[in-house]
Amino acid sequence: MSSAPLPSRNPVSPENLLNPLPLYEELRQSDPVYWSEDLHAWVLTRHDDVSACFRDSRFSANRVKMFEMQGGALGPDLLADYLAVARRQMLMKDGADHIRMRRQTMAAFTPEALSSWRPTIYRTIETLVGQVQDQGRMDLVKDISYRFPPLVIAEVLGIPSEDLERFRAWSEPLAEFTGPGLGVDMVEIARQANKATKELFDYLVRHIAKLREHPGQDALSQILTSHKGNIGPMDEGDLAVTSTLLLTAGHLTTTDQLSNGIYDLLTHPDQLQLLRDDPGLLQSAVDEMMRFSPAVPFFHRIVAEDLELRGKSLRKGDLVFLGMAAANRDPAVFPHPDRFDITRGHLHSRHMTFGHGPHHCLGAGLARRELEIAVEVILRRLPGLRLDEENAPRLKYHSLVFRGFEQLPVKW
Asked: Across the strands, what pairs with 395?
C-alpha cells in the first residue's frame, strides 16, 4: 500500500497557500526548523519553538533592514516614507525602546478602557446587522466584517467617521505590501504602500495636534496625557506612527478573524448549535476561532546573533518565519488539533494568534472584545444563519502573512 505523497515544501506554492495544513504537519514532524530556499528564511512550526522565539531577545523584532533591502531591490527611494515610519514603529523595537513605547501606549488598553468601549462596540455591530437583517442574505465580508472594525477603532481613536473611507484606502496597500500574493507587481505595490504611509501619517500628525490642544475621551487623548512613573507621554510623531499600526493592523486582522471564525462555525454545525444552546461558551468559542483559523498565520523575526536551534545553525541577520498557525495545530499542546472544538477551555489560552512575550499584541483585548460581541449579536439576530450554497466563498489573501476571505456569502 503506497503512502500519500508528501506536500511540496515551498510555503508560497499555490497549493500550500490554499491549504497549508499538510505542509505544517509534515514540517512539524520531520523538520521543525526548516530552511526554505523559496523564502530565503527559516520556518518554525512547533509550538514550543514559536513560543520560545517570541520571548527570546536573540530573535529581534527589528525587521527594518529586511524592508530596506526589499526597497533597494525595487528602486531607489521607492519606500522612503514607508521606511521612515517603520523605523519608529513599536512593532520594530526591541528592549528598552519597545518597553518605553508600550508603556506609553498602555493607558488606552487598560481593563477600564476596554469596558468603556463596550457600548461603542455593541452599538456598531447592532446597527450593521440591523441594516441587513430583513434581506435574508448578505456577503458577510462586505456587509459586516469589512465595515465593523474600522468603525469601532475610528471612534475609539477619535477619528471622524467621514474619514473612514480614506483609512480603508490607506490600509489595503499596506496590507498588500506586508503580505503580497503570487504574481503581483511589487514595484507598484511598494509605490502604493509608500504613498499610503505618507498620507496616513500626515493625516494623523494633524489630527493628534488638534487633540493636544483639545483632548477628548478617546484613546489617543489618553495616550497623549498619560504618565507611567518616570516615563512621560508619547510625543506626537511617535503617537502618529503608533496610530498607523493601530488603525491598519486593527482593521485588517479583526476583519479577517471575524470572517474566518464565522466560516468555521458555519462549517461545523454541531459546534454552532452547541454555542447557540450554551451562550456561556462564547469566550471559549472565540478563542477556538482564533486558534483554528488565525488571520495572521506567520510573523517575522530577525536572528540577532549566531545560535543553534534543534541542531540547525542560525546566523545573525537570518530571517525567521514564526508559524503561529502551525503552532496552533501542534498536537503536543492541543489534543486532536484539527478538530474545531469550542469546549477546549484552558488550552485556548496557549494559542499563538496574538503572538507571545514582550510583543504580545497590544490590541488583543480590544480584538477579543470585538469578536465576542460581534459573534453574539450576529448569532442572536440571525438565528438561521448558514452558508449560501449558491455562491461560493472566496479567499482574499494568498500570502503567508494574512489569511481571510474576499467574499463570504451567507443567508438566514
From this structure: 405
Q: What is the pLDDT of residue 1?
A: 41
Q: What single-letter DSSP state applies at residue 305?
A: S
List the one residue out of 386, 402, 406, 395 whose CA is nearest residue 18: 395
DSSP secondary-structure letter at 145?
I
CB neighbourhood size of 52 (10 A): 16
Task: Yes or no: say if 315 and 306 are a contact pair by the CB < 8 Å rule.
Answer: yes
41-44/33-36 β-pairing: antiparallel
- End-to-end CA gap in the chain: 46
DSSP string, 21-52: HHHHHHHHHH-SEEEETTTTEEEE--HHHHHH
CA angle 310, 311, 316 (to 5 degrees): 90
The backbone torsions φ and ψ at residue 406, rounded to the nearest 5 degrees and listed phi first, read -85, -30
CB 105 within 8 A of CB 90: yes
E strands, 230-347, are: 298-303, 307-309, 312-314, 319-323
CA distance 223 to 234: 7
Q: CA 280 to CA 262: how far, in whole Å?
A: 17
- Asked if residues 174 and 189 have their Cβ atoms less than 8 Å apart, the reply is no
Could you tell me the mean pLDDT of each successive run of 10 residues in the chain, 412 residues long? 64 90 97 95 98 97 77 74 89 87 84 92 98 98 95 89 85 77 74 93 92 88 71 77 83 93 99 97 96 95 97 96 98 97 82 93 92 98 96 85 95 98
Residues near 115 by Cβ (< 8 Å), separated by ≥ 6? none
Find the helix packing angle between 364-381 and 269-277, rounded to 10°: 90
For the chain, domains (ranges, CATH) are 14-411 (1.10.630.10)
Number of other residues whose CB lies within 10 A of the CB of residue 369:
18
Instruction: Return the C-alpha torsion angle 45, 46, 50, 52, nearest 10.
Output: -150
Query: Crossing angle, helix 236-266 and helix 95-105, to 10 degrees?
Result: 80
Nearest to 42 by CA among 74, 90, 9, 6: 9
The β-bridge partners of 41 are 36
CB count within 10 Å of CB 162 equals: 8
Selection from 64, 76, 256, 248 nearest residue 166 by Cα: 248
Instruction: Using CA atoms of 147, 150, 155, 157 in order, give the dihedral in degrees to the nearest 10.
Output: 180
